Amino acid sequence: MSTSTIEIRRARPQDAQALAEAHDEAWRAAYRGLIPGIELERLINRRGPAWWETAVRRGSRISLIMFGDSVAGYANYGRNRAKSLPYAGEVYELYLKPEFQGLGFGRRLFSHARRDLTSNGLASTVVWALSDNDYATGFYRALGGRAVARSSETFGTQVLDKVAFAWAG
């Protein structure tokens, strides 16, 4: 019998390659058919190992969820960037490789990010998701997120709606 552990920890510079791979797989799975193909590939290609290593070295809050020795996913979070919204913290990104979705890993990673934000004085939290990404919007609703704002983002020539979900402190 083999046992694998599940652990959440801060990303380290030597995780850059694994982070880039997790990002690539998760984004392709999440956005294929939503973001135009050329734009999606452009966004993914901007986030190679060097980008991730720099982000970690600069102190970005990036936590990994590990399954044994493998990166199953990551969360990137910090201060809320949308000054028009009255929430202190923001989960910028939360992504899992497709084979780790639907197993409770995302819930664990999100809870970890919220606890980390709260312990750093950022108790209320907001996260944005594309409105047409049913998997993401369903996930944040299931976690108790309340839709509090709408906006849009342009990808090439396509404008996509997005929704902000929030949790009080």
TrEMBL record:
Transmembrane annotation, as ranges: none
InterPro entries: Acyl_CoA_acyltransferase, Bact_Acetyltransf, GNAT_dom
Chain ranges of the N-acetyltransferase domain: 6-166
One matching Pfam family: Acetyltransf_1
Keywords tagged on the record: Acyltransferase, Transferase
PROSITE patterns for this protein: GNAT
Molecular-function GO terms, alphabetical: acyltransferase activity, transferring groups other than amino-acyl groups
Keyword Acyltransferase found: yes
PANTHER family for the chain: AMINOALKYLPHOSPHONATE N-ACETYLTRANSFERASE-RELATED-RELATED
Protein name: GNAT family N-acetyltransferase
Organism whose genome encodes this protein: Blastochloris sulfoviridis
